[in-house]
Amino acid sequence: MPTIRASPSSELGAGGGAATAATARLAVRPHRRIVVGRRLAPYVFLAPFLLLFAGFLVAPLLYAFQMSLFRETLVGGARFVGIDNYVRAIHDRNFWDGIGRLFQFGFMQIPVMLGLALVFALILDSGMALARGFFRVAFFIPYAVPGVIAALLWGYLYGPAFGPFSQLSVAMGLGQIDFLAGGGLLPSLANIAVWEYTGYNMIIYYAALQSIPRDLEEASAIDGATALQHAIRIKLPLILPTITVTIIFSIIGTLQLFTEPYLMRNLAPSQINSHYTPNYYAYTEAFTSQQYNYSAAISFALGAVVAVASYGFMLLANRRGRR
Amino acid sequence: MSDTEGTGRMIGTGPTIGRRRFLQGTAGALVAPAIAGLPAAARAQDKVELLFWAWTPDTQTQVDLFQKKYPGISVKLENVGQGPPHYVKLRNAIKAGSGLPDVAQMEFNSIASFKQLGVLADLAPYGVGDVGPKFIDWTWKSVTDGGKIYAVPWDSGPMGLLYRADVFDKNGLSVPETWDDYAEQAIKLKEKAPGTFMCDFGASDAGWVCAVLWQAGWRPFHLDGTSIRIAINDDIAKKWAAYWQKLIDAKAVDVKPMWTTEWFAGFDAGTYASWVTAAWAPVLMQQSMKKSFGQWRAAPMPQWQKGGKVTSNWGGSTFSTFTTSKHPNEAALFCRFMGSDPEAARLWNTKQFLFPVLKDLIDDKELMGHPYDFYGGQKVNEIFVVSENQVDPSFEFAPFQDYVNQQLQDEMAAAIAGNGTLAQAFDRVQDTVVGYANDQGFTVL
Amino acid sequence: MTIAARTVRSPAFRRQRWLLTAVLGAYFVYTFIPLLYVIVAATKTNADLFGTFGLWFAEDFAFWENLRGLFTYQDGAFSGWLLNTFLYAAVSGLGAAFFATCAGYALAKFRFRGRALCFALVLGAVMIPQTALSVPLFLMLSKIGLVNTPAAVILPSLVFPPGVFLMCVYIEDAVSNELIEAGRVDGAGELHIFGKIAFRLLMPGFATVLILAFVSTWNNYFLPLVMLSSSEYFPITVGLSQWYASATSGSGGAVLFTIVMAGALVSVLPVIAAFLFMQRWWQGGLASGGVKA
After folding, report:
1. Would you call A64 and C17 a contact, using CB atoms and an 8 Å cutoff?
2. Is the pTM of this model over 0.95?
3. Among A18, A77, B206, C137, whose Cα sits 20 to 30 Å from the Cα of A310?
4. Could you tell me the fold of the domain covering A92-322?
């Protein structure tokens, strides 16, 4: 562990004399201090996270992977089956139907959610709207609402007989709307995800925007730019890395969609069946059918799809960035 | 009977005295093994601690009663989830090889599954058999297998019919006694009042589906060692499917999912004129509805044969203990007390509104004769008392009932959404369940 | 209208200001309608919940009853759950944010052997859904006897990969290399540079990751569900969902929907408080000086 050779002269803003003293000290023993400090530092900083990561994420994953290579039955116990479970997963229509569904869901939901989050973050950051503090909190609240009441809540809002929107539609003579029937189910679920996560992403963008120095804005002002131009031409490119991170995590989150179908399963049982999304499929395989091994295989297969999608996106992003 | 109670009390008052007096007593061979088997720990007056997982509200009341009666045994009650999460935890603990409680709530439909995992302890060696005659026959049959006792019944849900007297009166309907009658009334209602349905077809809840099919004579599973006979799509199922398909196609019944905001609202608003449901439903409705106060009534479950007297059960739990328990004796004692102790059992009914499984309580006219204002002053429980005595005891659940339930729900929902008929749904479920059973190593007959 | 012009209170400025506010207001209405249902539902009795219009109050105002019920039902279990949730979320949030910041700093400001591998590994592990982890994690923790303890919830929650990536990206820009070099030239050790110099600049990012990790743990349902089997350790998510399910239990169930709604409302308040508290770090503390609006 590198020792912290802190001395008053190492504080920033110290006078030149102190710097000379420091450099003098450096001349005497520069080698040991800098090399040890700098070479080892990244590993030291990474260690706590990596240790926890290894223990609580990697280790269970390896265990799960091992499980996916076996088969345990109610009669007969466990036996090694190699990649049988994976072969079965690749041929499993339920799995691929779910993936297809999620791609549709993602194309609908991610642009809307991140687009709105970006717009609102830019508006809030521009300082031009009123009641900014209020809106900041208000938009974040949906993320904080516990999922347990989601079924009651959305069951009510989406209800064709007693829900307010359907009732409004009836009052206007347009008849009942069954939000959760047929083709309306996916957009309805997407809406829930947008409602829940737009604020979350907005906060991320807002924090990133806040770190952009104000002098840039002054420079733009001198150039005669409007706030909008400044937002789009200067701010946006500067937070592109953050946006990329949120896109990747949105892709991952979408392909791993579980909570929304799980909470809503009782509202649309004819459509949200036990294999509506691959992650939910993995869950029911484990906890309803007790096929823990196949469940693990599905999870890893899903992970592979996620990897392809995420890296695919990153490649695309890099290529466009290079233009 | 009373001797057994007496010896029960003696076990708690002090080991040496109890044993002597008891061995002198006429209690008989049945209980003697239980006492002789008392582990050293209890004799040494170490307090035995039992862990009990249950979700029924206020169970602590009865636990306290037990602890008062048996001061040498302390019981820690935990609610680890209701229904599915509870079983997930049990299964995880089984997999991990540790963490199983001593006693757990075990619904009737889950006993076969946990018996299959080989973790349910046999209570017969601990003298629990002598309370058997106190329980309603079908409940005792459901917890026993040959000479073994896997659980002690706790509560039940015999089926009946709840209906809206005002909707019936307004549309000139009569209370149906047979299913044919029910269908006729449904069509009649649909013609007279198009937005109102006789009921909501509860395909989203496999528990309901199994219960109504049970009454019709459906016996889909029979397990014998590792051989299993699976007959999910037999003639009875097909007939039942055709019956409901007709009503669904005629739009005489609704097909909304149960237990949702819309569903509750539908009952209160009069969209659904009736509900074929279990004995625990009256209290539930009373707690969640206001507009229809005083309009509901209870009637016997419609019969497939005119004059028939067959009903079924939906829900209900038991007390089970596990082979991993370090205190099997005390655990068995606890199960027995919680299910059959007169004071505790009476409280289950009066405090938690559970429907009883003890003959004494079922026959108690005063207890079961309480009039309910929500039901226009009707003594609702009397209907369910009759039903309890008519539950057909020959129904068997699968050793993988969770899987079966999931398949039933999935396929029936698909059928309702237009993907084939209900009858075809049963065919599909039969195929997938047979495939699953084969996969899991059973020999499917 | 140029930025320069907007410092003058021109009609154009006012128009833009109202337009932007209106846009935010519109989204607020969208955000608020579901919340309104929760608020209103928490003021009703169960019997009224399904019989009255969902977005407005019923005749019987039962909010205080529901609150009382919430805190007294099951011997006041809810207060314990609230404290548990706060403990888990605060400890995990702080820990997760801190470790993510350290890791992000390393990835952002150092070029070292294994850097690319780190990225790939951390990102790759996140791609496999957490459902795959719950049973193995349970079995592993069971072996070391940590199951059914607060540690079983807190320790896994200290791993927050999105935080690592967010901080990495944030630190790249927020902490300039010149600053770090200057510190090195002055003879400061790496830990000192990180703790005394860089950290102050990281605060907005740190605060963001902190609030995200905090809420993520606050709302976590599956991890505590699998790990905990004693009510005294439950967080709100598990406890409330038990009460919610009680109505659909069949035998012996109690209809507790409105109490659960009240619980959901109460559960949002500490999160809002934490958010408001964290907001101060979004203003100020920037290296190049100047506080943003």
Report:
1. no
2. no
3. C137
4. MetI-like fold (1.10.3720)
